[in-house]
């Protein structure tokens, strides 16, 4: 005997007037959210040259430790000595280092224009990502609550029933059937790959990107009260890392290695 879930047939009007329009609305809302987010976002302001130099100085030491084996011994030793001396003397610091034993005064985040601009951009992205989703959820709860929209083309276990049939209370219904509220959440997260294909990886259309924007991801400044990077300590740590780095020139013994491969190919 067939179960009631197998004999259930939905009216085509549900597909034409609920399922397809709801999917289109979710897709269009993501596109609108992306383009509105681009409109309200302030253009990035160039950082002072001293700030960029301070940040890139750490990168120079990291690159030397990672790729130093490609340099000849004399060049590696000279560059290592130069960076170690610069780190120790604070040559690349944007401000003179504090005296020995003294701690640098904490920076005022509210007095930094870049920090204030970053906070405003974060609030704009939160509004652009949060308000449309709230309106859509209220709209679906008001007009499509209790609707059964579609059935997934593959069987599912009973554990998926609560996730796919939100707003419905039908114990005998198969777990592969999907309600309108569950379809809303499936579209919210399932359309992210399509947005990435159309808009690129760095987009504000999907819910995951919106949540990252709310958390300050994507190069956003830290929130007020967060400790700023102490480049004096970072330079000191990088100098210590350069002192203990293991160096071995990649061209050392290259003649023997090439000759060995040649002999193997001949044999």
UniProtKB/TrEMBL annotation:
Location within or outside the cell: Membrane
Bilayer-spanning residue ranges: 17-36, 128-149
SMART domains per the UniProt record, alphabetical: DUF106 (SM01415)
GO-annotated biological processes: protein folding in endoplasmic reticulum
A Pfam family this chain is assigned to: EMC3_TMCO1
Signal peptide start and end residues: none
Lineage top rank: taxon: Eukaryota
Alphabetical keyword list: Membrane, Transmembrane, Transmembrane helix
Protein's membrane topology: Multi-pass membrane protein
Gene Ontology terms: cellular component: EMC complex
Family listed: Belongs to the EMC3 family.
Annotated function: The EMC seems to be required for efficient folding of proteins in the endoplasmic reticulum (ER).
PANTHER family from the UniProt entry: ER MEMBRANE PROTEIN COMPLEX SUBUNIT 3
Name by which UniProt lists this protein: ER membrane protein complex subunit 3
Organism: Sporidiobolus salmonicolor (Yeast-like fungus)
Organism ancestry: Eukaryota, Fungi, Dikarya, Basidiomycota, Pucciniomycotina
